[in-house]
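Reviewer comment 2.1 asked that we show a complete input and output for one of the modelled complexes. We chose the magnesium ion case, as it is the one discussed in the main text.
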Amino acid sequence: MNNKVDILLGLQWGDEGKGKLVDVLTPRYDIIARFQGGPNAGHTLEFEGTKHVLHTIPSGIFHGHVTNLVGNGVVIDPVVFAKEIDALVAKQVPVRERLLISRKAHVIVPTHRLLDRASEASKGESKIGSTLKGIGPSYMDKTGRNGLRVGDLLSADFNARYEALKQKHMHLLKGFEEHYKADPAELQTMEEEFMRGVQVIRELTIIDSEHFINKSLKEGKRILAEGAQGSMLDIDFGTYPFVTSSNTVAAGACTGLGIAPNRIGEVIGIFKAYTTRVGGGPFPTELNDETGEAMRKVGNEYGSTTGRARRCGWVDLPAMRYACMINGVTQLIMMKADVLSQFDTIRVCTHYKTATGNTEDLPFDISPSLIEPVYGDLKGWGVDLTAMREESSLPSELSDYITYLEAQLETPITVVSVGPDRTQTIERKPAIV
Ligand code: GDP
Ligand code: IMO
Ligand code: MG
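Response of the prediction step:
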């Protein structure tokens, strides 16, 4: 069996454009599988003049020939999931026929969302800036061995198990009362929606997805694992504690789908031609000035899930080198190059200055008091890229930027994206296949 699973994942702090590229690459695959995260993700796709935002459903859902799998590593909120299904059905997408769900995926219950809010409220100034979708509390219950899984939704004693978990959460919420008090009426509404969502999930195709994936590989099926969040938000390797609660890196695809490490093929690392971050935590190259504001405006940098303004800054090579190393990235995809057309100079953080000297590596703590980014400058291109479709049309300054990043990251950039639409994509080297 030579067939392998390719992985597409974000190298920065999320929102790199994973949804768009998964949609673009889907015609080359038979199965698209999410392996971690949950409704904290917001993956945007644009084609034929319409924009679609997906949270839990894989970004291959608009293609008829493809099976979309929500793997065991994902946490599912039945409320968000049911809404996503309704929205797709309203767009005439036969989502139920194209979707499979792992029996082992964990379920986000309403009190997980309340605990997320309570935990953030108790942190005050040092809050993480969570999307408040219940991600942290649900992964805590998974590792704490208290969680409910999709398979449990089908068991006869589901209601009793749900009640027991809820009671545990109600005790925990009492401990937060100084900072956050749950509203019983709101909880009741949330529970009604939850039970409706549970019923929607029960009627979907629930499978033992680790068997399905491995059998599909044996049959020669082509599989793409779709990452959520980004490497710098990884629970182990991100800017802890300002991270999400799952392994967003390539290794997460093994545990989140049940595939062995020697079954991983291409690791496609996707990044913006600049950097964004939403929520709290260190961001060395952040621009709190009119340049950052211009990136936000032209790049439309507002969260797909929460609508929050994203923080913007230049590319950070120490962080990207680190992400390439941890993930074993075999090829790179550069997104949103068009957003930089407005600048005369393109800056790149090449290394950090620290108390003990310069470093190109990522230190344990990248708080502003400990490191200072050092920049190199490249010439901007100053022309609109959005109508370009061929590599040969790209301005030489952009080609120089691409070549420079390839050399620094020792990895080829195979695709350059010049706009949000499916068609605004330039493939440079036929590497993905
Ligand atoms: P994801 O979470 O990685 O899927 O990324 P998001 O969908 O949250 O954020 C990416 C945003 O950039 C979306 O609004 C996309 O429509 C948009 N986008 C993707 N690629 C490009 C591009 O090349 N240029 C521009 N201007 N926008 C893009
Ligand atoms: P996609 O898949 C960007 C951020 C939140 C917060 C931190 C923890 O669209 O790239 P959580 O809700 O997981 O407890 O939040 O992680 N975050 C994201 N930022 N894109 C995402 O997903 C994100 N998912 C979580 O803003 O800082
Ligand atoms: Mg997003």
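Residues 10, 14-20, 42-44, 46, 299-300, 304, 335-336, 338-339, 417-420 surround guanosine-5'-diphosphate (ligand 1) (CB under 6 Å). We note this here for comparison with the apo prediction described in Section 3.2.
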